[in-house]
Write a structure and sequence with these properties.
The chain is mainly alpha-helical. Helices cover about 70% and strands about 0% of the residues.
Length: about 100
């Protein structure tokens, strides 16, 4: 039974023939991860501006401290998503470097 399995997995035309190494194609994860970073950065900038506006409204009595706290929480979440996106980009770049042996452009 082991011989039959070996014949199916290591013959010519198989994904990985004995002595033949063909790296798997690398999907374009670096550009996708970079796009997520851009979106997350825009979200942080938006929430920072919105927080400033909300604080100004609260100073005029048009918004409550609860409103300010809610926007602060949303800004914190946006910053966390940005950190996660930056981490994902770093992982994608390292995966590409490991798969191709070169730095991503």
């Amino acid at each position: 039974m082991a011989a039959a399995w070996r014949d199916q997995t290591s013959g010519p035309g198989s994904a990985r023939a004995v002595g033949d190494f063909a790296p798997a194609p690398v999907p374009p994860l670096v550009p996708a991860a970079g796009g997520l970073v851009g979106i997350a950065e825009k979200s942080v900038r938006f929430h920072e501006a919105f927080l400033g506006e909300t604080r100004a409204r609260a100073a005029r009595g048009e918004a409550t401290q609860t409103d300010v706290a809610m926007v602060e929480a949303r800004l914190a979440a946006a910053r966390a998503r940005l950190a996660a996106a930056l981490g994902g980009l770093a992982v994608a770049r390292e995966d590409l470097r490991a798969a191709t042996g070169r730095d991503p452009d």
